[in-house]
Amino acid sequence: MGDRLLVPYDGSEPATDALEYALETFPDADVVALYVVPVPDGYWGAFQDSDERTPDLDQAHDIGRNIITEAAQLAADHDRDIETEIATGKPDHEIVELAETEPYETIVIGSHGREGISRILLGSVAENVVRRSPIPVVVVR
């Protein structure tokens, strides 16, 4: 199989499970782990008038690099090499945008499996990706 898989990775247990699933289930696929530095809607607008209150995006990217390095190490533990990427924005939007613009065959994403009011209040990146993705999505729970 020559597939190219996109695996969103944030260091959480569901993301780790998804990466391990991708590595084990698709042994011949090229795997790309993606960390999205989350930026909520309207976030940057709060800082437009003040140069003194700009957020430390560099620090957020440093954290992201540490997390994505964990993904590469996990792959190495499975005797695999993976590519890694970091994006900035709303995670579900960035994941879908990459699926629309890059040559991926499948997204493999972890899900916390929240239900009921918790899911309504917190939203679900995995659910939004499943609904909006132009390519197949495997949800690992």
From TrEMBL:
SUPFAM superfamilies cross-referenced by the UniProt entry: Adenine nucleotide alpha hydrolases-like (SSF52402)
Superkingdom in the source lineage: Archaea
Pfam families: Usp (PF00582)
Domain UspA, first and last residues per copy: 3-141
Protein family per UniProt: Belongs to the universal stress protein A family.
Name of the protein in question: Universal stress protein
Organism of derivation: Natrinema altunense
